[in-house]
Amino acid sequence: MNVNIEASWKHALAGEFEKPYFESLIPFVKQQYTQYACYPPGKQIFSAFDHCPFDKVEVVILGQDPYHGPGQANGLCFSVNDGIPMPPSLQNIFREIQADLNKPFPPTGNLERWADQGVLLLNAVLTVRQGEANSHQGKGWEIFTDAVIQKISEEKENVVFLLWGGPAKKKGAKVDRSRHLVLESGHPSPLSANKGHWFGNRHFSRANAFLAEKGKKQIEW
Predict the structure, then answer these.
(1) Distance between CA 133 and CA 150 in Å, rounded?
(2) Is residue 60 within 8 Å of 120, Cβ to Cβ?
(3) pTM, 2 dp
(4) How sure is the predictor about 38, in pLDDT bands with cuts at 50, 70 and 90?
(5) Are 162 and 203 in contact (CB under 8 A)?
(6) 50 classed as catalytic
(7) Distance CA 190, CA 102 (A)
(8) Whether residue 40 has a cis bond before it, omega within 30° of 0
(9) Which residue in 65, 100, 116, 146 is the catalytic one?
(10) Which residues contact 34 (CB under 8 A, 6 or more apart)?
């Protein structure tokens, strides 16, 4: 099946696109986009991969599914388009960066700048219907993104995986922890963060310390 995804990923994941689950997933997604308002825009479904080629991956952050409000989702987990108010989880991410690294709040919640430095901002499910969280769960995306995580785990070394909240931690079962750094905490959503499960995790400085120790470039968070 011909999938419009960045070339290095197309090569790394070639086997997935021919599997039965994927061959039924794509018609489902096309039908949903034809029948309903869905996000992100069709050309941005694989944005996480387009901005962060396979050979450039240094950090992986896992989200659930895209924002389901108009104009928010851009194909990168937790990220919103320029000019869109930052959702609460993203605000809490920046609050932690502020406390951890003494960096000011950025003017935009668009995280393309992270992706372009080698941060794969991967949602477990890559599409969603407007106003209906989790509406595309269980259709095959989770199998695909599990394969992505497994491929990174098996073929790369010294990648930092940031797993926030229960679903992300479950997905982290695919990661070989003898080859990679896995940092886990609660989710940055207010529900979890305000109970003390997010703030103070220092994941951003810890990720950078690990990258520096391995002779890699640190991320400008």
Answers:
(1) 26
(2) yes
(3) 0.97
(4) very high
(5) yes
(6) no
(7) 21
(8) yes
(9) 65
(10) none
